[in-house]
Each structure stands twice: as structure tokens, then as C-alpha cells.
Amino acid sequence: MTDSPDSLFPQTVVSIAGMQVIQASGELFNHVDGGLPMWASHDDRLVRVEITFQATFAEPPAINLGLVGIDSAHDQNLRFRLRAADVTPRGFAIEFSTWGDTHIARASVSWQAIGEAQTKPAPGKAVGRNEK
């Protein structure tokens, strides 16, 4: 059984004056125990994890990613790329890639999404009409 991204990355949501910040951190992958590709293979490899925001943004937010932990083999060069892909108001994907003979057992990341919060009209209120 694999963990869902929601359990891997519990989110904290903060709203300030129409802006929204969502942040989370956790282990992106563990490939050493099962002999999975990042640890046991060579050449180009990619781990992609889809993230769904707990609160929707008005537009695609700015995403900050940070590597907060890595466990790699010491006898090869450490090569990796970490990026946010397919950013929408509802979520994004974290992509971690490596190549050559680099072996990475585990990687942990922290991420932060910053942007305008999605606002919804109150129930029963028409948008763009003056009340009398």
C-alpha cells in the first residue's frame, strides 16, 4: 500500500487579507527498501507526486520548493533536479529526477504555495448586483 500525497504532506493553510499561503513538508520517496528505481537503477529516472491544495487559489500560485533531506550513495556524483510542474489553482506536481549512475535512497521536501485566495459569493447573493 502506498501513502496518498495528502498523508505524506499534511498542509497548513494561512489566509491574510485575501492572500493565501499553504505549506507542507515530508518524505517525497523512499526507494532503498524495495529496490525501487531511484536507488537500484541507472540513467534517467523520475518520481512525480501530485499535490491537491486543501484550499483553492484564484489563479495558479507561486510555488517554492526546498530539499530538506536526502540519502544518497557516496561513491557516485549527486545529481538531481527538483521542480514544481503543472501548477493550477487546485494543485501541482512535485517532480524529482536524477540521471547517470546517481543512486538516491530517500528525499524529503518542503513546499509553499502563495497567491490570491479563491473567494466565493455568499449563498443566495448575486454577483455584480447592487442591493437595495
List keywords for this structure.
Immunoglobulin-like, single chain, 4-stranded antiparallel sheet, 132 residues, mainly beta, 7 strands
Describe this structure in words.
With 132 residues, the protein is mainly beta. It has a domain at 24-54 and 65-108: Sandwich (Immunoglobulin-like). It has helices spanning 5-8, 37-40, and strands at residues 12-16, 19-30, 45-52, 62-72, 81-88, 91-98, 104-116. The strands form two sheets. A four-stranded antiparallel sheet has the order 1-2-7-4, with no helix packed on it. A three-stranded antiparallel sheet has the order 3-6-5, with no helix packed on it. The longest helix is centred in the first third of the chain and has 4 residues, at 5-8. It is elongated, with a radius of gyration of 19 Å. The relative contact order is 0.28. The model is unreliable at 125-132 (pLDDT under 50).
Taken from the alpha-carbon principal axes, the silhouette is: elongated
List the total number of helices.
2
Distance between the termini: 57 Å
Structural class: mainly beta
Please trace the helix and strand order, writing H or E for each element.
Answer: HEEHEEEEE
Proportion of helical residues:
under 10%
Mean of residue pLDDT? 87
Stretches with pLDDT under 50, minimum 5 residues: 125-132
Question: What's the architecture of the domain at 24-54 and 65-108, going by CATH?
Answer: Sandwich
Strand content: over 45%
Major pleated sheet: 4 strands, antiparallel
CATH topology of the domain at 24-54 and 65-108: Immunoglobulin-like
Biggest sheet: strands side by side, in what order?
1-2-7-4
Q: How many strand units?
A: 7
Query: Which CATH class of the domain at 24-54 and 65-108?
Result: Mainly Beta
Instruction: Using the CA coordinates, give the radius of gyration.
Output: 19 Å
